[in-house]
């Protein structure tokens, strides 16, 4: 009898504990905030639907509450915006880096950079001035190493060849020319340099793969647990840092010696490393300063190789499932190839109108439900519609809503029409209120010109060399992971053009 009474006491105590926890964790919404969408599961809120039925959840919420509303996921309120509110976020906030840092602890991974915000303005200049700004100079070297990579990882396909892990393979192919652009041909001639720069983004995957379950208790608790290995000395980029330092130090010494000997006759190298070396505070003999620039290089790499290879991979799957459009792209590629005799120039890339349109349509159909999260800092923000978002709130952007807006793209906005932009004077690099895959406002991605032009060059070479199709002849679906997507993981079939 006494044991039964004790058991009842424990049960009652546990129930009161749950009720108390629910009360203190219940979201509190201010009077002028966007409406919080009601939910039926205490504590969990909208988390389940956010993970497994994201598109349905967010679309339904927008239909009921308009373009600005809040949901409760992983123990916190998240505000979702779209259309005009989305562009207000781009225009008014420079806090994209803070939102990223909540998913990937940049301040610990890239410990020598002092955090993403410390180097983002430097890398924006590198991307704009050195990388995108000199694409016409880089075109021959990119072409050279792309062909080398295609021959190495795809090769001769006299007989149809099924190649798995398309994104991983094109990440390797993309890493080859980009490594040469980042650190120069001498350093990039080492396979370990190309591998390290190519693997960097994928090696950070485990840090974002753990669902933030502990955030139901407190956001900082989740961050503390996932960063424990980092705090005890493990870092997924430590090996890459050693590789790059060992390979670029001799290159730096060689260039500095050339400057000393040649003086005004010294001809600067065209790569990001040279740009970093010309910074007034660059000093490779000072370990702290050298490590700062190594981490800056890694952050630049993180946003360059993986995203470009993802764009190429998605476009390839979109082509492979639509042979009638692939044939049209081949005809355009063949005409340009004959005109330039196989040696593509920047002006030839600009002639790839159908391919550019195809890439833009592919980017429009990545099917990301939410993307480009921002964090409201340093104080609360009020939209033109009167809603106020408090300081510290995470704001996520309803990406698919604006990218498939009928007002912007017509009644067929939901359809995949690969050549809809051919005569629209709207290249894949152009950022506007309805095409926000590269962000918007002052912080629109400065490397998008390089990324799109390199993607066109890669796809041009692949289309010329191979006929590509899916295994089952159908259009492949993306892999959905909560509000985000990755390219299909099924093999593609490659066969030499006759």
Automatic annotation (TrEMBL):
Spans through the membrane: 6-24, 290-309
Cofactor dependency: heme
Residues reported to bind heme: 445
CDD domains from the UniProt entry: CYP503A1-like (cd11041)
Chief subcellular location: membrane
Top-level division of the source organism's lineage: Eukaryota
Gene3D superfamilies given in the database record: Cytochrome P450
A GO molecular-function descriptor: monooxygenase activity
A single cellular component GO annotation: membrane
Protein name (database record): Cytochrome P450
């Amino acid at each position: 009898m006494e044991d039964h009474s004790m058991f009842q006491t424990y049960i009652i105590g546990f129930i009161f504990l749950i009720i108390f926890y629910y009360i203190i964790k219940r979201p509190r919404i201010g009077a002028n905030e966007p409406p919080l969408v009601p939910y039926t599961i205490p504590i969990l809120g909208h988390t389940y639907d956010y993970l497994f039925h994201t598109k349905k959840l967010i679309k339904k919420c927008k239909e009921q509450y308009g373009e600005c509303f809040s949901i409760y996921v992983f123990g916190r309120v998240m505000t979702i915006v779209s259309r005009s509110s989305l562009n207000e976020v781009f225009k008014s906030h420079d806090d994209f880096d803070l939102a990223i840092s909540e998913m990937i602890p940049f301040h610990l991974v890239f410990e020598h950079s002092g955090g993403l915000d410390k180097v983002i303005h430097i890398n924006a200049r590198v991307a704009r001035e050195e990388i995108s700004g000199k694409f016409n100079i880089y075109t021959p070297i990119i072409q050279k190493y792309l062909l080398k990579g295609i021959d190495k990882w795809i090769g001769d396909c006299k007989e149809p060849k099924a190649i798995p892990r398309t994104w991983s393979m094109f990440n390797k192919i993309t890493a080859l020319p980009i490594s040469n652009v980042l650190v120069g041909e001498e350093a990039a001639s080492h396979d370990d340099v190309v591998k390290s720069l190519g693997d960097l983004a994928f090696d950070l995957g485990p840090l974002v793969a753990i669902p933030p379950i502990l955030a139901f208790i407190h956001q900082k608790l989740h961050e503390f647990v996932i960063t424990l290995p980092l705090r005890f000395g493990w870092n997924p980029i430590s090996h890459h840092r050693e590789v790059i330092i060992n390979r670029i130090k001799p290159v730096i010494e060689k260039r500095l010696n050339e400057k000393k000997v040649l003086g005004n006759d010294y001809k600067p190298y065209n790569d990001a490393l040279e740009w970093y070396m010309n910074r007034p505070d660059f000093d490779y003999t000072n370990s702290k300063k050298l490590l700062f620039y190594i981490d800056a290089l890694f952050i630049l790499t993180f946003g360059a190789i993986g995203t470009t290879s993802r764009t190429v991979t998605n476009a390839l799957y979109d082509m492979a499932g639509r042979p009638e459009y692939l044939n049209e792209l081949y005809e355009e590629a063949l005409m340009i190839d004959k005109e330039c005799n196989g040696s593509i120039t920047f002006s030839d890339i600009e002639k790839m109108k159908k391919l550019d349109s195809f890439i833009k349509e592919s980017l429009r159909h990545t099917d990301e439900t939410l993307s480009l999260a921002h964090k409201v800092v340093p104080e609360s923000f009020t939209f033109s519609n009167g809603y106020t978002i408090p300081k510290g709130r995470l704001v996520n952007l309803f990406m698919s809503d604006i990218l498939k807006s009928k007002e912007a793209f017509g009644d067929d906005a939901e359809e995949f029409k690969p050549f809809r932009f051919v005569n629209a004077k709207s290249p894949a690099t152009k950022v506007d209120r309805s095409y926000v895959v590269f962000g918007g406002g002052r912080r629109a991605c400065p490397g998008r010109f390089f990324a799109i032009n390199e993607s066109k060059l890669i796809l041009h070479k692949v289309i010329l060399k191979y006929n590509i199709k899916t295994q089952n002849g159908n259009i492949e679906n993306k892999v959905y992971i909560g509000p985000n997507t990755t390219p299909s993981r099924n093999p593609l079939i490659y066969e030499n053009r006759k």
